[in-house]
Amino acid sequence: LQSADAAFQQEVLDSAVRVTGHYSGWVEEGVMRRLGIKPNATEAWESEGGGKFSFKDPLGTGKKVTRRSLPAGQSAAKFVASKLLKKNPNAYFYRHTEPGVEQWTGDWTEEEKGVFLRIAQLHGCGDKWGLFSTHIPHRVGYQCSNYYRQYVIPEGWVVDDNYRIDGNGHAVYVGKHRR
Q: Which pTM was predicted?
């Protein structure tokens, strides 16, 4: 495994966005305004009932989410996320687009790539993919995360020290260990 600095030529590194592996932004302003999402995570969480998050009771209803309680064909994760738009937008947008906006699949356009890199430059990236994705219409957080690992890091467009490049040119997450 090699660091990006060892794996890429200097000209690639000179044009790369360098990040710490953390997204420091919030929901895209237009999306926030259209959907009435509060301006920060604390206000969003508290205004929607607050409480302590629990994987056993992710909706804070006192009831466990069971397969029988799910709509046909929907995973528990997607169902729970669908209920958290205003309380936990990161969870919602990791699996859903803005209501009424079609999710695109397949290859990313050059325009989407440009937006991705601009948001990475402004706010960083590497976590909170649901929030990050609100800046890229038609894409959800898990698509941004996959694009990051499969294209952005391996091409050297972004340098994130939490990743190494293997002998096949693939991004490998090493976390804070960095060895």
A: 0.92
